[in-house]
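Note to self: the last two entries modelled the partners one at a time, which told us nothing about the interface. This time every component goes in together.
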Amino acid sequence: MPIIETINLYKTYKDQTSEVHAVDNVNISIAEGEFTAIVGPSGSGKTTLLNLIGGLDTPTSGNLFIDGQDISRLKPKEMVDFRLHHIGFVFQSFNLIPVLSAKENVAFVMELQGRKKGERDTRAQELLEAVGLGDRANSRPSKLSGGQQQRVAVARALASKPKFILADEPTANLDSKSAENLLDMMEKLNQKENITFVFSTHDPRIMSKARRIITLEDGKIINDIVK
Amino acid sequence: MKITLMLMRLSWKNIWRNKFRSILILSAIAIGLFAGTFTVAFIAGWGRATIETEICNQLSHTQIHTPDFSYNYDINSYFLEDRIAPVVDSVTHLNSVSYRLKLYGVLASASNTVGTFVHAIDPEEEKATTTIYQYIPDSLGTFLEKDKLPIVISQRTAKKLNARLKTKVVLSLQDVNGDMQSVAFRVGGIFKTNNSMFDESTIFVRKSDILPYTGLPEGVAHEAAILASNVSTGKEITKALGKALPDMDVQGWNELQPALRLIHAWTDLINVIILSIFLVALSFGIVNTMLMAVLERTKELGVLACIGMNKRNIFKMVMFETLCLTVVGSGIGILLASWVIGYTGEHGIDLGFMLNANYERFGFSSVVYPILETRAFLEIIALVVITGIISAIYPARKALKINSWEATKC
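The predicted structure of the combined assembly is written out below.
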């Protein structure tokens, strides 16, 4: 069973005179353990599709299944809860909580899930070690480099034990070396832990590492290549 | 509950993200609350001092007269002490009572004449009931203790009559038959209160000295002035005596001196106005600060929503931040106000240097002792916290309207 499946997915924006199909009849199926990049020019609908897959927006029509559950009709409150337990996010600008340490940032999601302190602390430390930052657990984001912050963001995304991780331009604000390191780390997690990653990106480095590339244009899938 | 505690911890950390701004708003809340509370205490202290001064100096908490005397101050409108005393003595919370004769008269010295209102009293009863004897400096005699036919007059009256201690003065008054009687007294004491109108119109003589010249029988009085243990028991006594003596005119201090009742009402009203102004200003300050805090953190709040923090928790977090600011700021303000009110309440604030003489003409003391009851303190704290909560609602609602995904891209 695919982790992510869209069937005839549409997202249409209307103004007084016209309709714009930001996502136009998209049908994709992403299996567990895939390392997929969604690419396309600006305005192609990448962000809108990612919003829909991440449960941050609702489709105009069609169905969206996450691990077999149709989330396209969930109420906003149910959607927040669904995101908390099933989807991990990595953002372009890291977006860590500046007043919390690296470890607290990772543990934060688990705290929202209501997990016990001991479990939170152990898992947060394990995840930081997995992303190579075990020794920076008590550092605030302001004391970490961009690459290190993005690693913490990946650890935070993994903390909730999600079905997949949605990464929006995760290397856009990193220098080449940091970007390479981050991608290597993600690839390793994907291969070792079978964690599913879905990227929205322009970055050729991600495209070169991705094992599947879905290309969007005007809201439609124009290419879907599995390497 | 665990999430709530976590949100509280996070809110506290968020407050200190912008230390300067937080200290500024904390100081504004603390100083505002201090100023508001102290002003309320100052006005309450002034009002209470004015009322208590009047009550202690001459009015007492309750007075009993015959209805006719209240109407025309007629010398013949007296009552028998033996009839009233058992009823008065039976009430609870009674401190003391002074039975007085009150007569209009003219006081003359060798150089001048003044119209006056004679308080013919028993000195011991009067001392137990009013504090007027305390207004006679040691160097200016005693309160009807020594000498034959002593009279106690005010410094103002003494000045008008060009009289000093031991000066002979003649008091003329009408007896029960309407005939003029004149009695020679010697000035035995000179007092000065803060109420110059009272000073100018009042003299004291012993009841036993004047009685033979009035034609009144023994054991009568025009007025029973009753001192209770405090203002609230005074109200109870007035009520109880009013029921027990339906044919008499039983009045509380607020009926005897409507101006005092007005002061009482005005101090409450002014306090409400001052507090309202403070709370509105506080509310604007909080809304402004929290709105800035929310708008500055649009991206972060968007991220929190993305990763699964529900709207209720985002709302709670912003509310906690506001509450932390309000509670800490008002805590500092209240502590400061408690200390200053405690100190000035004990030592008083002398406003004599900025008030003119007319102020004291109306019985207002130039020394104010600020006071604020615990209940009023708690009410102010509650009002501040409620204002904080209400003010936080708009910024918190603003936080809920942030578009999560778009916000993360800012």
